[in-house]
Amino acid sequence: MKEALLERFIQLQRDVSEQLGAQRESFEKRQAEALDHQHKALRQGMEHVSSQLHQSQAEAARTMNERLESLANTTDKRLQQISGQVEKRLTEGFEKTTEVFGRVLEHLSRIDEAQKKITELSGNVVSLQEVLNDKRSRGAFGEVQLEGLIRNVMPEGSYAMQETLSNGMRVDCLLTLPEPTGRVPVDAKFPLESYQRMMDNEASEGDRRQARRQFAQDIKKHIQDIAGKYLIPGETADGAVMFLPAESLFAEIHAHFPELVETAQRARVWLVSPTTLMAVLTTARAVIKDVATRKQVHIIQEHLRMLSADFGRFQKRMDKLADHIRMAHDDVKQVNTSAQKISGRFVKIEKVELDDLEEDPLLPGN
């Protein structure tokens, strides 16, 4: 019994050993297959990864090349734009610089012209000084200035230049103003020598006092000459005008020689400068215009009366026209009423409404 059990145990041990060997061989085989499969899978994975790496590198290289080309194109375009803008700005800068140089040259030419004009003006001033140093030329200068002022302000027919009076004296200008003013003599005087000596700061005090006395005497003599020669009762006005062609003379007399102003007023001689003469002439022109307007008032009134009569006739004719229009409106309204009745009658005839026709008030006998 023990032997049988021992044999069975041994046999079982053998079977187990065989099974274990078979399992070991199967496991080793499977393990080898698994390792081989893993090696193949790993090799395939490595190959796939390597392929993907090559593709990624190629794609990255292609993308990099495209980006580099795009960047190069963008850079070229930008450089072209910058170059164009720089060229445009340089061109504009050159144009502006050329324009500035042209203006500078123009201003320089104007400066040259102004310098020439200044030189000519200096010569003219010297010539004017030479003219004013001569009494006769100075008198002619005052007369020309007086005539220019009067011609620019006064209307034609209101003045006469170099008019000879009944006493044989010739006045520079004779203004003809409305009554009661009448004809006003205007004479130009230009006492320059004594005035220049009086205003000369380099002269001695004694010489300046002497020139001052001489200046007063000259002005007083001119006032007396104008009053004695040009104020003629019944022919001229009771006052005359003494024209001083320089504002400085007028200002000096009124500022430092009040006695001369009083003398002129007593002699009925009014001292004027170019500015004050312009004011006097403007006032005289306004007076002349006012008198002329008043002379035309009766003509204006006559025209207004005629206009009023014309408007009255127009009003009457307008009223008649309104009556005719109203009558025509009434006639049209009546004609329209008759037309509506006739139209209604035709409608009834078309509908053969004989009974209505017999009762129609428009039928004879209705």
Fraction in helix? over 70%
Uncertain segments of ≥5 residues (pLDDT<50)?
121-135, 362-366
Number of helices: 9
- How large, in whole angstroms, is the Cα Rg? 64 Å
What is the level-2 CATH architecture name of the domain at 129-295?
A: 3-Layer(aba) Sandwich
Proportion in β-strands? 5-15%
The multimeric state of the shown protein is single chain
Distance between the termini: 167 Å
Q: Summarize the main sheet.
A: 5 strands, mixed
Judging from the principal axes of the Cα atoms, what is the shape?
Answer: elongated
Do you know the CATH topology of the domain at 129-295?
Trna Endonuclease, Chain: A, domain 1
Per DSSP E runs of 2 or more residues, the count of β-strands stands at: 5
Just give the CATH class of the domain at 129-295. Alpha Beta
> Taking all residues together, what is the mean pLDDT?
76
As laid out across the biggest beta sheet, the strand order is 1-2-3-4-5
Task: Look at the helices and sheets and give the structural class.
Answer: alpha/beta
Protein name: DNA recombination protein RmuC
Organism: Thiolapillus brandeum
InterPro entries: DNA_recombination_RmuC
Keywords: Coiled coil, DNA recombination
Protein described:
- The chain has a 5-stranded mixed sheet with strand order 1-2-3-4-5.
- The relative contact order is 0.04.
- Helix 2 (135-153) runs parallel beside helix 7 and helix 3 (193-199) packs antiparallel against helix 4 (205-230).
- 78% of the residues lie in helices and 7% in strands.
- The chain has 366 residues and is of the alpha/beta class.
- The termini are far apart.
- The longest helix has 132 residues, at 2-133.
- Among the domains are: 129-295, 3-Layer(aba) Sandwich (Trna Endonuclease, Chain: A, domain 1), CATH 3.40.1350; 317-359.
- The protein contains 9 helices and 5 strands.
- It has helices spanning 2-133, 135-153, 193-199, 205-230, 247-256, 258-266, 274-295, 297-350, 354-359, and strands at 159-164, 170-176, 183-188, 240-243, 269-272.
- The model is unreliable at 121-135 and 362-366 (pLDDT under 50).
- This is DNA recombination protein RmuC.
- Keywords: Coiled coil, DNA recombination.
- InterPro entries: DNA_recombination_RmuC.
- It comes from Thiolapillus brandeum.
- One of its GO terms (biological process) is DNA recombination.
